[in-house]
Design brief:
Largest sheet: 9 strands, mixed
Number of strands: 24
Shape: elongated
Distance between the termini: 24 Å
Mean pLDDT: 78
Helix content: 25-40%
Structural class: alpha+beta
Radius of gyration: 21 Å
Oligomer: single chain
Length: 422
């Protein structure tokens, strides 16, 4: 059977792959987006109704990325006539060491963005729902909730409207590269392109077993907690409930957002979970013997809420617990680079906890002006907290919550558009 030809093939239709495909197709490249399941499936890390976004960050690169991305999403909202981000009336509140909060505040100031540093006493007075007496706090007026499932569907819909091709229920069996051409053998036939991007999520090492960096999949407990007093239900609506994050000295990060997923219940969870070794087993179908261990992550959240957010009901809650997948590298940094030995295949993975933060503009000139991009040996070296396969830079784990990962992938898409002939 003759292979179908495209300019670029993107494998994996989660938020990273879908956004990459959208920008490629928008740039005029004949693009194919391959998904082994249905679009919007719940087997990976891109499903669900909500994610956190915020502008506060300690690194100027990230603030630039989220600023541009937010502007694009607002434009997309106007174009489509639908809401994709919800910002609380009181913004977001971030707790941590005074040093870390000051670093975030100073970086925001470089971009002319407002923020406010509060003492523990001031934060308790302004945000009485939270009782963090040992931390300083930073108010981020632009922090909010991404309506994740709508966001993903919007990019996929716009990709289709731009003429992009999608092949669902298409498992990639293997691939070969020769003479500047990549041939993908799938359960639905062969596809060929001069360039390919693999955004594989927890399947990164299944298709790429020789990748030097091994992805580790974790199962997270996503917990939903209702108020003790039913009269407090209006307080948990996303327009009223401030997005909040807590960076603890032990490296753990707790976070919460308003009632988007479950009516009348706050989404409150711990960033991190239990290792999960079979990527083909859905997160909800784990073996009973491991359920008890994973329950520990629910109990850790329960204890945290009981101490620090006491208006939520930890006796009768959580009202619902879901399991989802995170995929990380061993040192919990990102894998974004060319496949070793190839200048035509790019790999993006191990980026859970940040993937929804920012789609990015596609014009290289704008990217260079905004981020001072340096191009060298066909590698993108802006280094906004990426763990390249050749380990160019490392960023602490607590930064994962605000890294704007899609930006990196789309920057790679820019390079593709300039190297694909057509």
């Amino acid at each position: 059977m003759t292979a179908q030809n495209f300019d670029v093939i993107v494998v994996g239709a989660g938020i990273i792959g879908s956004t990459t495909a959208y920008h490629l197709q928008k740039a005029g490249k004949k693009t194919l987006l391959i998904e082994q399941f249905t679009l919007g499936h719940s087997n990976g890390s891109s499903h669900g109704k909500s994610r956190i976004t915020k502008h506060a960050h300690g690194d100027a690169v990230y603030v630039a990325l989220v600023t541009d991305a937010t502007a694009q999403i607002r434009e997309l909202e106007k174009k489509r006539g639908e809401q994709l981000i919800v910002v609380s009336e009181t913004g977001g509140i971030i707790y941590g060491s005074t040093e870390f909060m000051l670093k975030n505040k100073n970086t925001l100031a470089q971009f002319g963005k407002e923020s406010e540093l509060l003492t523990a006493y001031e934060a308790r007075k302004r945000y009485p729902l939270y009782h963090y007496d040992e931390y300083s706090a930073l108010v981020d007026p632009l922090a909010g909730v991404i309506l994740a499932n709508k966001w993903l569907a919007a990019f996929q819909d716009e990709y289709r409207k731009a003429g992009g091709a999608i092949s669902e229920h298409t498992l990639v069996k293997n691939f070969t590269e020769e003479n500047d051409s990549i041939l993908l053998n799938t359960c639905k036939g062969d596809f060929r392109a001069p360039k390919a991007v693999f955004t594989l999520g927890s399947w990164i090492n299944k298709l790429l077993p020789d990748l030097p960096v091994k992805g580790q999949t974790q199962i997270l407990s996503v917990c939903y907690w209702a108020p003790k007093d039913p009269t407090d239900l209006p307080l948990v609506k996303p327009e009223k409930y401030p997005v909040h994050l807590v960076y603890q000295p032990d490296g753990r990060c707790f976070f919460s957002m308003g009632s988007v997923d479950v009516e009348g219940a706050v989404k409150f969870m711990l960033h991190g979970g239990q290792n999960h070794y079979d990527t083909d087993v859905p997160a909800g179908d784990i073996h009973e013997a491991r359920t008890m261990f994973i329950q520990k992550f629910v109990e850790d959240v329960r204890a945290h809420i009981a101490k620090n957010v006491p208006f939520l009901d930890t006796v009768n809650g959580p009202v619902k617990v879901e399991r989802c997948k995170y995929t990380m590298s061993p040192d919990e940094h990102y894998v974004i680079d060319y496949l070793p030995g190839s200048k035509n295949i790019q790999v993006a993975g191990c980026m859970s906890g940040a993937g929804f933060k920012t789609p990015f503009r596609t014009h290289r000139e704008s990217v260079e002006q905004l981020l001072n991009v340096r191009w060298e040996r066909n590698h993108l070296l802006i280094c906004p907290s990426s763990h390249l396969i050749d380990s160019r830079r490392e960023i602490p784990i607590y930064e994962l919550m605000t890294i704007n990962l899609i930006a990196r992938i789309v920057l790679m898409a820019v390079e593709i558009t300039e190297t694909v002939k057509g």
